[in-house]
Every structure is written in structure tokens, then in C-alpha cells.
Amino acid sequence: MAVCTTSSNMIGKTLTVGYAIGCGDDTFAGLTYLPLGTINDKQLEFSANTDDNTNDLSGAVTSSLVVNTSFSLSVSGFLTTDDSALSAQNALIQYYWDELNAGRQPTIWLKVSGQDYPRIWHVFANYTGSTEGHGTTATSTISFDFETTDTGVAQSAVNLTAAP
Q1: Is 36 exposed, middle or buried (0-12, 13-18, 19+ CB in 10 A)?
Q2: Alpha carbons 147 and 90: distance in angstroms, whole number
Q3: Of 3, 93, 108, 126, which is the most buried if we count CB atoms within 10 A?
Q4: Residue 101 CB burial class (10 angstroms; 0-12, 13-18, ≥19)
């Protein structure tokens, strides 16, 4: 039987997303991240918010400055009914409602990493919502949305390192 190498185009298949309930002053590298389970789509999006600093000497082209950046992560996959080591979806949903009912923000640290992926993201974010889909087939789907928020300390909300 031939043993072939996997294509490096299959990065998404091995990319994992985990979360750790925590505050902005937590040391993100030392947290224990729980898996989000059977996730098949992950979308990281960041875009700059700019300010126009065009002046009389700028010429014909608009000049702009990056003043800050928004960062969001959306993941979707299959809903799991257990809250085992393979998936901590139910615990995350419960945490969301517990925090809102207590008048607090549902803040978490996210870790996005994977085999053949050149980066490791650690992101401090608000858990901003979920969507569940229940069709007539046996498979139900779920999605989670997260958006960065201020850590409240001198630690960046988005930390990017090269994979080892």
C-alpha cells in the first residue's frame, strides 16, 4: 500500500479552534483551551479602520492612517449532544447566557492553530452569538461568532506567533 503525503492545500481540515473562559489580564499561553468540536468552516477576518489625513500637499491621492483594526472569527460545524473532551459547545452556550444574565460580558480567549498552518492566533473576544440549524436529517449544525474586545490591560487582544 502506498503512503502518500497529504496536500498542503488541506490546511482547513487540520485547523482547530479552542476557547478558554477568561479575562483580558489572563496569560493566554498558559490557559487550557477547550475544543469547539466538529467544526468544518472557520473564517478569520480582520480589517483596518482608517482615518483620512489628506492635506494640501498630498497630491491627487487620498492619504489615510490605520487607527485600529477589527477582528472577528466565525466557525460553523455540527452540533454535538455530548459535552465530552471532543466538544465543549454546550458549556460555551451555557456560559454565554450565564454571563449575560449576570450583567457581564461573555469574554473568552480563542486559540486558532493547526498542523501545516504557519500561525497561532490567540484572540481575546466577546462571544457574540450562535446559530443552530435543525433540519429533517439526523445532522444538526451550529455556528459561533466572536469579535475582539479590549483586554483592559496593556496586553493586546490579538496575538500572532509563528507556529513551531
Answers
A1: buried
A2: 20
A3: 108
A4: exposed
CB-hemisphere CA count at 13 Å for 161? 13
Determine, yes or no, domain membership for 55: no
Element (DSSP H or E) covering residue 2: none
What is the number of residues in the chain?
Answer: 164
**Would you state the cell numbers that stand for residue 155, as one nine-digit string?**
496586553
CA distance 132 to 55: 50
Q: How many domains, the chain?
A: 1
Residue 57 lies in a domain: no
Q: What percent of the chain has pLDDT over 70?
A: 85
154 part of a folded domain: yes
**Residue corresponding to grid cell 490557559:** 31
Residue-wise pLDDT for 12-43, tens only, equals: 567 889 999 999 999 898 899 998 877 888 89
- Domain with 97 in it: 11-49+67-162
CA atoms within 13 A on the CB side of 63: 8
Find cell 500561525 and name the residue: 119
Question: Contact at 8 Å (CB) between 21 and 30?
Answer: no
